[in-house]
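Key result, reporting period 2: structure in, sequence out.
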């Protein structure tokens, strides 16, 4: 998930000169951004998201702004980037299909990732993505030796197909006649204040209640995640195709990045403008007639907008600005799981202040920004002393089934 190279039989840390800076930078941006999207899933029960309702708190102006920022700038875009980069990691760890030794190492690595994900999802937070990446990684093994052109065509076409379907579906749902809309929403869980509070009380009643509620939510998520394989694997293809073509390494012509900036920026601007109109419209109304939702369907294009912007900033002498994401990305596995530990401690673990059910988007942002600052500070400090993050070390230690150096020498 975070290592960019592995040497079969040698558990030595990856030399800094051999690391691909852009991948670490993009991974750091993704792991920080994904917290903004996940915040609601820590602060409120799964029932709120299942009902596709806002948290049952009085929405202030700041809450509406906070929700607009998440919806427009982060939702689906960070997961998309994380998935694309995971496809690159599968190749960099496992090499070509003809490399049997590295392939065996990769399979062990994916098995351990799946176990990490299972523990993470059942014992801490139902929204875990690691298990999903593990079994998708096993599927993706058969495609990792494809050429850049083939990966881009197959992964790109399927990704565009799903983006068109998503945009059309969002627009169509927003424009259904009332009687059809009512039928479409039949059977959807209702997040009444009483129902939500009952789940919150169960979470805050102790660790037994946490395990019970979290397990229920995890099982419902686990039933949904396999349907995402058809989205996830093509995104992995697209990511590896972009890497093999040199795009993610900053080797593509500048005009390519500028073209994506123009297209993705236009999409992002439309989503921002229409999204603002929708988020501040009276409850139950949509002055954009579905355009706000439809504009968010092309999330991969906005993801590539972010990628192009960060790469160009680095190429144009602003590595100091983009460099803050590099250490975070080098410890992405640790930082992702640390986010869970921090957020669950704040919102529902017995040893924390138990703030579940109390925060709206404005308060989430205060917490999220605090975690961002902490991880941006602590990641380079840790890496000054150690060669990798603590959980990266554990993951590699388990994969190699032998000693792995952690502390820097000299």
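The corresponding designed sequence is given below.
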């Amino acid at each position: 998930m975070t290592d960019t190279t592995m040497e079969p039989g040698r558990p030595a840390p990856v030399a800094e000169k051999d690391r691909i800076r852009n991948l670490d930078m993009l991974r750091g941006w993704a792991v920080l951004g994904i917290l903004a999207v996940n915040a609601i899933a820590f602060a409120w029960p799964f029932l709120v998201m299942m009902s596709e309702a806002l948290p049952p708190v009085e929405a202030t102006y700041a809450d509406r702004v906070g929700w607009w920022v998440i919806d427009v700038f982060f939702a689906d875009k960070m997961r998309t980037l994380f998935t694309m980069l995971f496809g690159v990691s599968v190749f960099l760890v496992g090499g070509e299909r003809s490399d049997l030794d590295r392939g065996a190492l990769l399979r062990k690595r994916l098995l351990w990732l799946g176990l990490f994900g299972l523990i993470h999802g059942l014992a801490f937070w139902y929204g875990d993505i690691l298990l999903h990446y593990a079994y998708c990684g096993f599927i993706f093994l058969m495609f990792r030796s494809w050429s850049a052109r083939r990966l881009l065509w197959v992964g790109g076409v399927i990704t565009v197909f799903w983006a068109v379907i998503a945009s059309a579906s969002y627009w169509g749902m927003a424009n259904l006649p009332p009687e059809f809309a009512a039928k479409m929403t039949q059977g959807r869980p209702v997040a009444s204040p009483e129902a939500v509070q009952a789940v919150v009380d169960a979470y805050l009643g102790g660790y037994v209640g946490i395990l019970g509620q979290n397990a229920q939510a995890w099982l419902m998520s686990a039933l949904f995640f396999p349907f995402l394989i058809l989205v996830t694997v093509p995104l992995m293809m697209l990511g590896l195709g972009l890497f093999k073509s040199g795009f993610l390494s900053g080797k593509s012509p500048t005009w390519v990045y500028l073209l994506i900036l123009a297209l993705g920026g236009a999409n992002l601007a439309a989503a921002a403008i229409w999204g603002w109109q929708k988020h501040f419209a009276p409850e139950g109304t949509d002055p954009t007639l579905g355009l706000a939702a439809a504009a968010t369907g092309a999330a991969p294009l906005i993801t590539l907008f972010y990628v192009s912007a960060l790469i160009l900033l680095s190429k144009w002498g602003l590595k100091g600005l983009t460099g803050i994401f590099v250490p975070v990305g080098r410890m992405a596995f640790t930082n992702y799981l640390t986010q869970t530990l921090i957020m669950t401690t704040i919102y529902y673990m017995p040893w924390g202040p138990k703030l579940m059910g109390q925060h709206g988007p404005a308060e989430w942002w205060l917490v999220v920004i605090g975690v961002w600052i902490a991880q941006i500070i602590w990641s380079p400090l840790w890496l000054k002393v150690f060669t990798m993050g603590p959980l990266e070390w554990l993951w590699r230690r388990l994969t190699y089934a032998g000693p792995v150096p952690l502390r820097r020498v000299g």
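The radius of gyration is 21 Å. Residues 4-18 have pLDDT under 50 and may be disordered. This case is discussed further under Risks and Mitigation.
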